[in-house]
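User: For this week's homework, look closely at the record that follows, marking any run of repeated tokens, and judge whether sequence predicts the tokens.
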Amino acid sequence: MPVTTCVFDAYGTLFDVSAAARQAAAEPAFERISGCWQAIAENWRQKQLQYTWLRAVVDAHTDFWTVTGEGLEWALERNGFDGDTALYDRLMALYRELQAYPEVPDMLAALKAVGKNTAILSNGSPDMLAAAVASAGVTDLLDDTLSVESVGIFKPDARVYDLVCKRFGCDKSEVLFVSSNGWDAGCATGYGFTTAWVNRAGEPVDRLPWRPAHMIPDLTGIPELAGL
């Protein structure tokens, strides 16, 4: 069936998760991280994701904002900034207004121009996602923002992917699911979506039972994959 609905992971896919540390490092008040902001960003993201998986496995769900803060605490300690509350507060504030990748607005506008449904499906809590969408200026280009908070478990649990067809009344085969996380795209393939992995870093494919249907370097090719 043709694609009617294009659904995007948020963090790392539409929004640049390195932007908070990069921006803080450029500010005079936080120049102390100018030599290690990349490591902080990488460690932060790594722990943020790991904590979602672990909480899902042991049925200890909490909101993504809490997980994000816990991941940042670990990353700051790992890089020698344990107890630096000013840095912690600034990075968390910047995370609420992450920069979108430059191709995002035009890509979403192209999909909307031909009547495709567009949505976010994210681990993010609703208030986090609302802030990021507004900051990126793409509110009018999305039909909905779907959060795992409505089912109380993080991706890649199938109950999260279920939210898409329930919201749009479509079949799985009509969905193009796009994520920058190889594991997310792979698991969504197993669920039944057509998938695209945005592999900006050129990483190897995750060794899972399923593989993304498409691998692309950025989001500019999404309209073509959606049949435009």
Observations:
- The chain has two domains: 5-15+99-225, 19-95.
- The mean pLDDT is 97.
